[in-house]
Amino acid sequence: MDKFIIRGGTPLQGTIRISGAKNSALPCMAAAILTEDEVTLENIPDVRDIETERKLLASMGAEVELGYGRAHHRTRIRCALLSDPVAKYEIVKTMRASSLVLGPLIARTGMARVAMPGGCAIGGRPIDLHIKGLQAMGAEITQEHGYLEARAKRLRGAHIVFDKITVTGTEDLLMAAVLAGGETVMENCAREPEVTDLAALLTAMGARIEGAGASTIRVQGVERLHGARHRINPDRIEAGTFLVAGAITGGDVTLTGCNPNHLSAVLHKLQECGVVCDLTADTIRVRSQSNLRSADISTEEYPGFPTDMQAQFMALATQAEGTSLVTENIFENRFMHVQELVRMGANIRVDGRTATVRGRSPLSAAAVMASDLRASASLVLAALVAEGETIIDRVYHIDRGYERIEEKLRGVGAKIRRIGNVFREEPESA
Ligand code: UD1
What is the largest CA-CA distance in the chain? Predict the structure, then answer.
């Protein structure tokens, strides 16, 4: 299993180019199921979850070509024949977002078999709201042997009110609604930029959608969709992680190819901590010369502070003067990074959904274990300021969602190297 070895203490300086958003790319790849024509996606990140989705689509009979480097991070997907509309457990267990194929499969083929995602490192993550919405659209859903089986001759438009805001739930039902008969109105939808990105692709494929990015989305179903070409948004969480890397090391880092509009809540908190942020339309420069100040965060749905940045911000809070309260409202059990940060010398106490971080604590290197994608990123950030050489085990979690993070960090002066060479090894679920 690969490990990272990181020697802390170097202020990062230079430029990092931001990759395409994994969480946009995943639903957009699933959207290719909705047409027999070719869908071309650009700015696809070279991360393990994308390879998993390629395998998933290929296992159903789709032709998927993934190209990196000179092929400009492009994928071409053609779902002319979906001979086996099944998302198998072996694939779903490694990536919960596999449930995103449920809606498009029923809409296109009239049937879907999708393995139920199991327990997860960051809370239960059920898909009951996906199921409830599809049932409202006329799908018959049964569950046996760990699989959900859904059938519908043609889905029909429905009025859906989400009990709780769900990002992939909104995306899944949006993909189902575009081919349903009649109008679908969805209320209490997720407003994340990834939903808007998916809606842009679907619209380019011929779907009729109004209101993506707002909490009510209206869809007029169409008979068929056609192929399209679409460029994936920049990854706001990757960008946020590197902003914290610049800030925590007292560095001067410029991100290019990002969208500052998607990062308002994160930028606001960095400024509250005393970090200087200079923005253009697609770059952000962070500088942090003076002492960092504490700030409280409370995770919310977009446009609030993203849960996917909570762990990274907590690493920053350990280096800020004063007490920061970090409240996690989206997922239960998303504080697994805390015990590892404490092992490195942080002063953090967890009480229910709130962690109290008292700073500033000098961190010292330790052998630590990555537990999920974003928790692992917070350990990398802590290691960048820790005294000595930190060894981070199980970095396959990081490889699921960050494109060559060690190369990008080395490019701005970080002392980080990877050991082991099993980058593409299959992990257990996370
Ligand atoms: C997506 C993101 C993930 C991010 C999360 C919240 C992708 C691939 N992943 O995950 O990185 O952390 O949004 O911003 O885009 N819930 C239910 N029933 C459901 C669905 C969700 O109760 O049917 C609950 C979840 O347990 C959680 C909350 O709703 O407490 C939000 O989850 P959701 O927005 O669905 O997260 P994902 O879409 O899985």
Answer: 63
Q: Please identify, by atom number, the ligand 1 atom nearest to the C-alpha of residue 130.
A: 23
Q: Whole-prediction pTM value?
A: 0.95
Residue 61 CA to residue 56 CA, distance in Å, equals 9
Q: In this predicted model, what pLDDT tens digit does every residue of 300-348 receive, in sequence order?
A: 999 999 999 999 999 999 999 999 999 999 998 899 999 999 999 999 9
Which atom of ligand 1 has the smallest separation from the CA of 171? 38
> Residue 421 — very low, low, confident or very high, per pLDDT cuts 50/70/90?
low
Strands 228-231 and 38-42: parallel
The secondary structure of 15-45 as a DSSP string is EEE--B-HHHHHHHHHHGGG-SSEEEEES--
SS (H, E, C) 215-241: CCEEEECCCCCCCEEEECCECHHHHHH
Catalytic residues: 120
For the CA of 26, the closest atom of ligand 1 is 8
What spacing in Å lies between the alpha carbon of 224 and ligand 1's midpoint? 29
Residue 367 CA to residue 347 CA, distance in Å, equals 18
Q: What's at 221, amino acid-wise?
A: G
Tokens of 114: 């999708």
What is the chain's alpha carbon radius of gyration, rounded to the nearest angstrom? 21
- CA distances in angstroms from 183 to 176, 209, 341, listed in the order given: 12, 10, 50
Instruction: Give residue ranges with CB within 6 A of ligand 1.
Output: 23, 26, 97, 123-130, 164, 166-169, 194, 307-308, 330-331
